[in-house]
């Protein structure tokens, strides 16, 4: 069972990550560009673990397509997989909200039928 974490756009995540690091390391100044390499290594680490966790940025999914279907079609999500959608709250982008769900069995039937 893999976990798919759907994140806000890459630029917002990296900007927030830089802000978080600056809170913990106040003498450092980090730009989103500086942290792109660190972020990519974290993504690789998560994908190499068992069960794997895949980080998918919102802009990597087709517009207008349901998340479950897009993850199945584009990233191979299956019925036993966990899907976590993370979004920035309206008040401050640094505050996060998440929704955790299981890949629905009904979507699996629709996805399987679409492959036939």
What does this structure look like?
By secondary structure, the protein is α/β, with parallel strands linked by helices. The protein has one domain (3-115). The protein contains four helices and four strands; from the N terminus they run E-H-H-E-H-E-E-H. It has a four-stranded mixed beta sheet with strand order 2-1-3-4. The model has no long low-confidence stretch (mean pLDDT 81).
Mean pLDDT: 81
> Count the strands?
4
**Percent helix range:** 40-55%
> How many domains in all?
1
**Rg (C-alpha, Å):** 16 Å
Work out the strand percent: 15-25%
Query: Which runs of at least 5 residues are low in confidence (pLDDT < 50)?
Result: none
- Tell me the number of helical segments per DSSP (H or I, 4 or more residues long): 4
Order of helices and strands: EHHEHEEH
CA-based shape: elongated
Strand arrangement across the biggest beta sheet: 2-1-3-4
Biggest sheet: strands, sense, closure?
4 strands, mixed
The SS-based structural class is alpha/beta
Annotate the secondary structure layout.
Elements lengths: L2 E5 L2 H15 L7 H17 L4 E5 L9 H9 L6 E7 L7 E7 L2 H11 L1
Parallel strand pairs: 1-2, 1-3
Antiparallel strand pairs: 3-4
Helix pairs in contact: 1-2
